[in-house]
Amino acid sequence: MALELPDLPYAYDALGTYMSAETLEFHHDKHHNAYVVNGNKLLEGSGLEDKSLIEIVQGSFGSNAGLFNNAAQHYNHLHFWNWMKPNGGGAIPGNLEARIIEDLGSVDEFKAAFTTAGLTQFGSGWAWLALKEGRLEVMKTANGENPLVFGAVPLLGCDVWEHSYYIDYRNARPDYIKAFLDNLVNWDYVAELFEAAN
After folding, report:
1. Checking CA distances to 170, which of 20, 44, 83, 101 falls within 20 to 30 Å?
2. Which sequence spans correspond to the domains of the chain?
């Protein structure tokens, strides 16, 4: 399947001071678009042209680095835009909150682990909440890698590549991750992915 750049699910200025219009314009229109354009070029002749995006990501991992990097980042960003919403953060839907408490100790412990994952990912990468073998776990991955290639289902991801936050936060990655968790996360979308994975 050809990769296609989606429109953002909200206006460029909808996330306010937590993620500026300038950041979204660069991140979506430049960076994400580049993954789509380059990914489509690399998809040609790969033998994966008729596969789903998940199959392209999994099928290129470890065998076609260029295609994997672009297809995986496309997958990650398709969800990243939906993992955020205006006036995000706040209460976590009941079933998901109960599972977070059961598997990770408490919501505060989850947030601490997620923050640590994002802060300790050296260089570019992602922090994740994922479902693996029926349990929630916090993960971190380098560059464009995601839980799909490690036998898990991504439920929430925070992009910690510098282009995600440098315009708004400069080098203060901790402030960006805190703003993401407290003010941006679309927990309804995370809960939808959790229910679908179950």
Report:
1. 83
2. 20-82, 94-197
Q: Which two tokens stand for residue 198?
A: 């179950």
Tokens of 37: 């354009």
Written as one string, the DSSP assignment of the chain is: ----PPPPSS-TTTTGGGS-HHHHIIIIIIIIHHHHHHHHHHHTTSS-TTS-HHHHHHHHTTT-HHHHHHHHHHHHHHHHHHTB-TT--SPPPHHHHHHHHHHHS-HHHHHHHHHHHHHHS-SSEEEEEEEETTEEEEEEEETT--GGGGT-EEEEEEE-SGGGTHHHHTT-HHHHHHHIIIIIB-HHHHHHHHHHH-
- For the domain made up of 20-82, the CATH class stated in words is mainly alpha
What are the pLDDT digits (tens) for 155-191? 999 999 999 999 999 999 999 999 999 999 999 999 9
Domain made up of 94-197: CATH architecture:
3-Layer(bab) Sandwich (3.55)
- In tens, the pLDDT along 36-63 reads 999 999 999 999 999 999 999 999 999 9
